[in-house]
Design brief:
Layout (H helix, E strand, L loop, with lengths): L19 H5 L18 E4 L4 E4 L22 H10 L2 H13 L5 H9 L60 H37 L5 H6 L1 H15 L1 H9 L14 E7 L8 E7 L6 E7 L9 E7 L8 E5 L3 E6 L6 E6 L4 E5 L9 E2 L11 E7 L8 E6 L3 E8 L2 E9 L20 E6 L6 E6 L4 E5 L8 E3 L6 E6 L6 E6 L3 E6 L7 E4 L4 E6 L6 E6 L3 E6 L9 E4 L8 E6 L5 E6 L4 E6 L5 H5 L4 H15 L9
Antiparallel strand pairs: 1-2, 3-30, 4-5, 5-6, 6-7, 8-9, 9-10, 10-11, 12-13, 13-14, 14-15, 16-17, 17-18, 18-19, 20-21, 21-22, 22-23, 24-25, 25-26, 26-27, 28-29, 29-30
């Protein structure tokens, strides 16, 4: 028997049997230094740009194991001292020397022993067993391991130091004659300015008279301005003659065979070149001129904020707006004054409010808020004109995400604000006027009672609706757990004094009696509801718009559970309809979408029976709604208003 044993290929029992083609196939794996569990959507607030921005640099370091040890190198000074102290220095050297002196028997010695075996068969001799050398298992899969190290960019820090601005202390005492002299100087200064202004006006008149004799002057252009506008409207009427005929005379004959169901007929689309990339954030009809309406353009994508736009259109000229105002911040809400239809209140994304006068041919607002006079610190969601105050000053209210409901009074050439109520974030019904901003909830909408001047409703981002009063700034009259998500609109009924409607992002529209904490009706529209509006001619008719581009028209006296009309009014599937408004004089509604378009729609006869018959009055409408509430009202304890 030979001392050398043949080489044996060691193969695990569970190894797969692969063909030569499978063995030649290469599998490449690339290892990256990125941490798969590191978040990639971290945002931080940028005080410079006043918005949330995505954080680009994310720490990719992942520590799998970490342990603090006290190992020392044996050749270091401290290691040698510790080995000498323990007496291990000599023994360690001797052990190393012994290992070097050991010899492993080679092949020549084994051959000599093999030749002398026959001569020494009889002599008993023990042959030491030689273990075969251990061989590493061969790679059966042609696996290749590769690694690389990347260069880590060095961190840089920048810092600046500034000198504080110089300060000076000033103090003085004033008496009566000094105050009198200061007033006298101010009066003299004002008189001098008036004289200068009069002299300038005279010079301008002389220049205008001297240039009026020349052909093609500005006076002649102003003289033909009104006739040119009339001709423009005539041309538009001829161009859109079919739509004008439908607006005036169209009646859907198929309504006679549909029972109570109705349809919406698209009329004129209104759009502006400047507002193509902006959403329609507000639509409102003028209270005196029934053909005039205003459209506010902004953006609900708060990471893409920019300039805003206000367009005032007329149904007589669908091709171009009558007035156009550009704003530095996005427009979020609009409202016309009910008695002075040329005054328009505007709320902006940056928290400011302004009042525009349509009679003044300028792009600058007549009144505007600033940080000095207490403007909002967050987005203004709604503005609403109110009756004049005790001093007969015009005033309007605004609600913002900073939790404030503020009254703005137009005094001389300035806006003066007064906080009416601060909306608390917790569930208590007594907001603290001195609470900090961290304790305030986000107000999203409000509406004032049509018959009780001091009563109003407030909707919040938390889904609650608060019934408030102007007379109580530190307490809610009632709180309703209305919705599970943000409340987008809350509207009092135009006829019944106790009924209001609300809509939310939780897909529902709810009808309430403010004396009860539970809703009278709940409608699930299958998508986020952007707006809900009561009709101006019936107490039981209301409309709502959803994010899937559909308009829903309900009449509770005809159908208590389903809409009379559910129609898509957009051309593209992903277009959202944001706002809806009824016209008080014509049977049309106006809707705005997130692509900057405003579309007029005419109601079919089944959707405007009261307006067609002209048989509605407030007493009849209140009685009709009251009968409806008696049918669905559940017995519950009535709350005190």
């Amino acid at each position: 028997m030979s001392a050398l044993e043949p080489k044996i290929l060691m193969k695990p029992d569970d190894q797969l049997d692969l063909t030569p083609e499978e063995l030649k196939e290469e599998f490449t794996r690339i290892l990256t230094a990125n941490n798969p569990h590191a978040p990639n959507n971290i945002v931080r607030y940028s005080f410079k740009e006043r918005c949330y921005k995505m954080t680009m640099g994310v720490n990719q370091l992942a520590v799998h194991f970490s342990m603090d040890g006290n190992m020392l190198h044996k050749e270091s000074d401290e290691g040698r001292r510790q080995l000498a102290r323990l007496g291990l220095a000599d023994s360690g050297a001797a052990t190393e020397q012994n290992l070097n002196d050991m010899e492993i028997p080679g092949e020549e010695e084994l051959e000599v022993e093999g030749e002398g075996e026959e001569a020494e068969k009889d002599a008993p001799r023990e042959v030491p067993a030689v273990k075969p050398p251990e061989t590493a298992l061969r790679n059966q899969f042609n696996y290749s391991e590769r690694a690389s190290q990347t260069f880590n960019n060095p961190y840089r820090e920048r810092g600046t130091t500034t000198e504080p601005p110089p300060r000076t202390n000033f103090s003085a005492t004033a008496n009566q004659w000094e105050i009198f002299d200061a007033y006298q100087e101010d009066l003299e200064r004002q008189e001098r300015q008036k004289e200068k202004q009069k002299s300038r006006d005279k010079d301008n008149e002389k220049k205008s008279k001297g240039s009026s004799s020349e052909p093609g002057t500005g006076d002649e252009i102003q003289r033909i301005g009104i006739p040119a506008k009339i001709v423009e409207r005539m041309v538009n009427q001829n161009t859109h003659d079919e739509i004008a005929q439908d607006f005036k005379y169209w009646e859907d004959a198929s309504d006679e065979y549909k029972g109570n169901e109705g349809t919406l007929l698209p009329l004129w689309p209104f759009k502006s070149e400047k507002g193509k990339k902006l959403s329609v954030t507000a639509v409102v009809f003028n209270p005196e001129y029934n053909d005039m309406f205003a459209v506010g353009h902004g953006s609900y994508d708060f990471l893409k904020q920019g300039a805003g736009l206000i367009c005032v259109y007329s149904l007589k000229n669908p091709s171009f707006p009558e007035f156009t105002y550009t704003t530095e911040s996005g427009v979020m809400t609009l409202d016309f004054h009910p008695e002075h239809p040329w005054l328009m209140a505007v709320g902006f994304y940056d928290g400011g409010v302004a009042v525009y006068n349509l009679r003044e041919k300028t792009n600058v607002p007549s009144y505007s808020s600033s940080a000095k006079n207490g403007k909002h610190t967050d987005t203004v969601w709604q503005v609403y004109w109110q009756d004049n105050d005790l001093d007969n000053n015009l005033n309007f209210f605004s609600i913002s995400s900073d939790g404030r409901v503020t009254c703005w009074s137009l005094i001389k050439n300035e806006l003066h604000n007064t906080d009416i109520i601060l909306i608390k974030l917790n569930h208590s019904s007594s907001p603290d006027p001195g609470a900090g901003g961290l304790d305030l909830a986000c107000g999203t909408c409000f509406d004032f009672h049509k018959f009780t001047d001091y009563l109003f409703l407030v909707g919040t981002e938390e889904g609650k609706i608060h019934k408030c009063s102007k007379h109580y700034s530190s307490q809610y009259l009632e709180t309703y757990d209305a919705h599970h998500m943000a409340v987008y609109a809350v509207r009092w009924n135009n006829f019944h004094p106790r009924v209001f409607a609300s809509c939310s992002a939780d897909w529902t529209v709810k009808i309430w009696d403010h004396n009860y904490i539970e809703p009278m009706f709940t409608f699930d529209l299958g998508n986020s509801v952007g707006d809900v509006v009561w009709s101006p001619y019936s107490a039981t008719v209301f409309g709502a718009v959803t994010d899937d581009g559909q308009v829903h028209i309900f009449d509770l006296s005809q159908e208590k559970y389903n809409p009379l009309c559910q129609q898509s009014v957009v051309q593209k599937k992903k277009t959202k309809v944001n706002h809806l408004v009824f016209n008080k004089h014509y049977p049309v509604i106006l809707v705005g979408d997130d692509r900057g378009n405003a579309l007029t729609l005419k109601l079919s006869p089944n959707l405007r029976k009261c307006l067609k018959d002209k048989a509605y009055s407030r007493e009849n409408e209140v009685e009709k709604m009251e009968k409806l509430l008696e049918l669905v009202r559940e017995p519950q304890e009535e709350m005190t208003a």
